Amino acid sequence: MATQRIIDFINTRRPNGPCMVLDLEVVRENYHNFEMALPESKIFYAVKANPAPEILRLLASLGSNFDTASVAEAEMALDAGATADRISFGNTIKKERDIARAFELGIRLFAVDCIEEVEKVARAAPGSRVFCRVLTDGAGAEWPLSRKFGCVPAMAVDVLLAAQKLGLDSYGVSFHVGSQQTDLSAWDRALGDAKYVFDKLSMEGITLKMVNMGGGFPTRYLKDVPTAQAYGQAIFQALSKHFGNRLPETIIEPGRGMVGNAGVIKAEVVLVSKKAANDNVRWVYLDIGKFGGLAETMDEAIRYQITTPRDGDLAEPCVLAGPTCDSADVMYEKNPYPLPISLTIGDEVLIEGTGAYTTTYSAVAFNGFEPLRSYVI
Questions:
Q1: Rounded to whole angstroms, how far apart are CA atoms 139 and 21?
Q2: Does 51 reside within a domain?
Q3: What is the full per-residue pLDDT of the chain (377 aa) written as tens digits?
Q4: Fewer CB within a 10 Å sphere, N or C end of the chain?
């Protein structure tokens, strides 16, 4: 829910147009919750979730490390006060010149998922540590990740063997159980795959040291989600089950779980209409849609909580859409969204839990609508 600080900011500043307002105190609390839940794991904040400089500076000051997907994100982390040894280049799809630039900046930890990528890292960042991403099914995630990233465990063995032969340090394994993952057992399955790779490499004389357990930690939208403590307990039990007393170094990469519930989008109702005189379903159009930052409503995967000034009035399901001249700019139609019948043009609404993957997904002036403005308080 919107904090009082966010509500006061909106009421006093009266920002024009849709905007995302994020409360840094919530981010600080989330960071400490992750620290307490998994005290033995290093936190690598997924910069792509929200790269606002204020967020990066706060997390750098708290001791966070950073998972970056590009040279630009790595430079943002450095500018925020992180040192290069606290940065991972976690994208498995990198131009060789970008690997070289990251190496020049001092970064020595790279993700790979195929031998071809290993060869690039060996040429551009000799001697660096690499970890191989293992494919997971993402079952239980509201925003599952596709087969775009990772390889099957048997291939990960070959990839890490090749890395060692090319002079790299085969350092570990990574996986991602899918974003907004609510199934506590998802890490158990993935850690079983990681242990398989560890054992196979050990038979070849290579001792892997690290498991990057990725992100997937959820934020609350319409449904309650387990606490960071519950995830920590489930993950520690799974680690102990598969690795016994010889636990590897571990990394977690929270993004959504770090900043999602810290931000709220203020939006305005532009139009309420029907498609026919006898139509039972209203269409409610906001001044923000898929192209303005709500891309994760694609396939209605993420259902945000929306609060209105008329909550408490009789509500009926409606189709919720954005303002652009694109027929894809509809957020909820297959599963209409209940909103008050009294909701009308000009009403302001708050879209909760929008601190992650909104400002970065916002299009650059599609239809002339400016990118989503962001205020960090």
A1: 32
A2: yes
A3: 899 999 999 999 999 999 999 999 999 999 999 999 999 999 999 999 999 999 999 999 999 999 999 999 999 999 999 999 999 999 999 999 999 999 999 999 999 999 999 999 999 999 999 999 998 765 555 555 556 889 999 999 999 999 999 999 999 999 988 777 778 788 898 999 999 999 999 999 999 999 999 988 878 787 778 788 888 999 999 999 999 999 999 999 999 999 999 999 999 999 999 999 888 899 999 999 999 999 999 999 899 999 999 999 999 999 999 999 999 999 999 999 999 999 999 999 999 999 999 999 988 888 999 999 999 99
A4: N
Look up 114 and say whether it is catalytic: no
Q: What is the pTM of this model?
A: 0.94
**150 near 92, Cβ under 8 Å?**
yes
Question: Which of 134, 136, 101 is closest to 120 using CA atoms?
Answer: 101
Does residue 304 sit in the same domain as residue 206?
Answer: no
If phi > 0 it is left, if psi is from -120 to 50 it is alpha, else beta; for residue 190 that is alpha
Closest by CA to 43, choosing from 218, 208, 213, is: 213
Q: How many CB atoms lie within 10 A of CB 46?
A: 29
Residue ranges with strand state E in 85-134: 87-89, 109-112, 129-133
Domain containing 313 — which CATH number?
2.40.37.10
What sign does the dihedral 239-242-244-245 (CA atoms) show?
negative
Burial of 126 (0-12, 13-18, 19+ CB in 10 A): exposed
Can you say whether the dihedral through the CA atoms of 55, 69, 231, 350 is positive or negative? Answer: positive
Q: By the 8 A CB rule, do 10 and 21 touch?
A: yes
Judgement on whether residues 372 and 224 belong to the same structural domain of the protein: no
Hey, what amino acid is at 125?
A
Q: Same structural domain for residues 205 and 67?
A: yes
Q: Give the structural domain span for 223.
A: 24-259
CA torsion through residues 79, 82, 83, 89, sign: negative
